[in-house]
């Protein structure tokens, strides 16, 4: 009888990280600030699409630019898709907050901070969303480094 190696569920984060070799983008204004709205937590918002980062930069007017970042390899990310087993911690935290997986409180800083705190308690360093515009949030800037 033929034996097979056990398969594990690959996460969206593992796929995106490997595909992009850990490099992600952020559109920033002249002040160096981005436009993260807090939908998936509080922190540094990045995207895997340079053109999406450029669109965010252009929204901030003259002097804006796209910056490139390298995310540390061993960060623990939760998927925010809301459907697979790898999303369960995100689903559970949102439920404890009174939200369905795809619901959010908009641009509410308290919502973002609470979501971040609860996910950090579960050991996560950030969140990856399946929407390229929402992208990725890394909770602590020590886990990202600007690539010049």
Descriptive notes:
The protein is α+β, with helices and mostly antiparallel strands and 148 residues long. A hairpin with a 7-residue loop joins strand 5 (126-128) and strand 6. Helix content is 27%, strand content 20%. The protein has a single domain (12-147), classed as Phosphoenolpyruvate Carboxykinase, domain 3, CATH 3.90.228. The chain is built from four helices and seven strands.
- What ranges have pLDDT less than 50 throughout 5 or more consecutive residues? 4-9
Instruction: Please compute the radius of gyration using only Cα atoms.
Output: 16 Å
- In the sheet with the most strands, the strands line up as 2-6-5-4
Query: Which fold name is given in CATH as the topology?
Result: Phosphoenolpyruvate Carboxykinase, domain 3
Structural class label: alpha+beta
Helix count equals 4
The succession of helices and strands, N to C, reads HEEHEEHHEEE
CATH class term: Alpha Beta
Approximately what portion of the residues adopt beta-strand conformation?
Answer: 15-25%
Instruction: Tell me which CATH architecture applies here.
Output: Alpha-Beta Complex
Report the mean per-residue pLDDT as an integer.
86
Number of domains: 1
Helicity, as a percent range: 25-40%
**What multimeric state do the chains show?**
single chain
């Amino acid at each position: 009888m033929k034996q097979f190696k056990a398969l594990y569920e690959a996460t969206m984060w593992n796929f995106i990280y490997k595909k992009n070799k850990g490099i992600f983008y952020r559109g920033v204004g002249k002040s160096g600030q981005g436009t993260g709205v807090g939908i998936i937590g509080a922190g540094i918002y990045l995207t895997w699409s340079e053109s999406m980062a450029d669109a965010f930069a252009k929204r901030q007017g003259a002097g804006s630019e796209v910056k490139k970042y390298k995310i540390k390899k061993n960060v623990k990310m939760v998927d925010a898709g809301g459907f697979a087993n790898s999303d369960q911690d995100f689903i559970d935290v949102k439920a404890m907050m009174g939200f369905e997986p795809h619901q959010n409180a908009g641009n509410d800083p308290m919502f973002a901070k609470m979501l971040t705190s609860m996910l950090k308690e579960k050991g996560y360093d950030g969140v990856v969303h399946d929407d390229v515009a929402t992208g990725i949030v890394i909770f602590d800037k020590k886990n990202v480094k600007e690539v010049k």
